[in-house]
Amino acid sequence: MLSATRARALKPLLDAFAARGDWADRKRFDPIEFPGRYANPRDVEVAGLLGAALAYGRADLFKPKVDGLLAQMGRSPSDYVAALTVPRAAKLLDGFVYRFNLAADLGVLLLGMGAVLRERGSLEAAFEGETQHARLAALTRTVREAAPAKPIAKAMGRTRGLAHLLPSPLGPGAAKRLNLYLRWMVRGPDGTDFGVWKRIAPSQLVIPLDTHVMRMAKLLGLTARNDASWRTAEEVTASLRLLDADDPVRYDFALCHYGMSGACPAVPVRENCVRCELKVACRRGRALGGRT
């Protein structure tokens, strides 16, 4: 975790880095584009959870899957899932396969979301608990329990990757995709995230810890841990709170896409380090790129 002294030195660098104007071009490589298509908060949250749940593996593989489902849902994904029945879901998802997930897994997600909307009015209402971990666990548990399990199994067959799509219990992992979803819903609206949920403050969010954020966090001294666990995500977030106590995860999109774009690869490239605006704060940058 950062010391207070290092945080004071890193803050102006990371603020300038995150404020760069070209991050908008990276949205086409990010599942954030799915909720970004809609204005209604209920559509934003439904498209967002569908997109975040399937956002694993390569973007060029999962994005067509999400695109295809949203296209069949029409102008309002929330209206669609709220009216969804098991037979209609079976028709929608006939033949669906994406890596770990089969049609029945998506049936639980879509029919569960629809039931929560009908019973509670929004997916935000499914959150309970005082910690981020407890809130996310409540969301996945509520959606899974709201889905009609036996009719889904009869119409669509067995589930296969449901614990990956909607983990319950949440477990010790970093829950990257769920934290990403919550970032979209809680932060903003600021040109990146949407801010459609009001029950949770941005200060309470936890960083969506993926391989790119993890690498940059270690290079910048935000954590010394090596495991992509919930504990590591909390430590990285605690370091970022020293930079911005009210909105620590505002740096996430820039850090993630800087690594994802190839500008900060796993195998260092000296020329990249020389050009990097964070090099004076980065242990790799200081070694390969120099201090000036």
Topology:
Layout: H1 4-18, H2 41-53, H3 59-73, H4 77-82, H5 86-92, E1 97-98, E2 101-102, H6 103-120, H7 132-146, H8 149-156, H9 162-165, H10 176-186, H11 211-219, H12 230-241, H13 252-260, H14 270-275, H15 283-288
Antiparallel strand pairs: 1-2
Helix pairs in contact: 2-10, 6-7, 6-8, 11-13
How is this structure best described in words?
The protein is an all-alpha fold and about 290 residues long. It folds into two domains: about 1-25 and about 200-290, Helix-hairpin-Helix base-excision DNA repair enzymes (C-terminal) (Endonuclease Iii, domain 2, Orthogonal Bundle), CATH 1.10.1670; about 35-170, no CATH class. Helices cover about 55% and strands about 0% of the residues. The protein has helices at about 5-20, 40-55, 60-75, 75-80, 85-90, 105-120, 130-145, 150-155, 160-165, 175-185, 210-220, 230-240, 250-260, 270-275, 285-290, and strands at about 95-100, 100. Strand 1 (about 95-100) and strand 2 (about 100) form a beta hairpin. Helix 6 (about 105-120) crosses helix 7, helix 6 packs antiparallel against helix 8 (about 150-155) and helix 11 packs across helix 13. About 45% of the residues are buried.
Helix percent reads: 40-55%
Largest β-sheet summary: 2 strands, antiparallel
Strand arrangement in the largest pleated sheet: 1-2
Gyration radius from CA atoms, angstroms = 20 Å
Can you write the helix and strand succession as a string? HHHHHEEHHHHHHHHHH
Count of the domains: 2
- Residues in β-strands, percent: under 5%
* Span of the ends, CA to CA: 25 Å
Number of strands: 2
Number of helices: 15
Overall structural class, as computed from helix and strand content, comes to mainly alpha
- Shape category: elongated
**Low-confidence stretches at least 5 residues in length (pLDDT < 50)?**
none
Mean pLDDT: 94
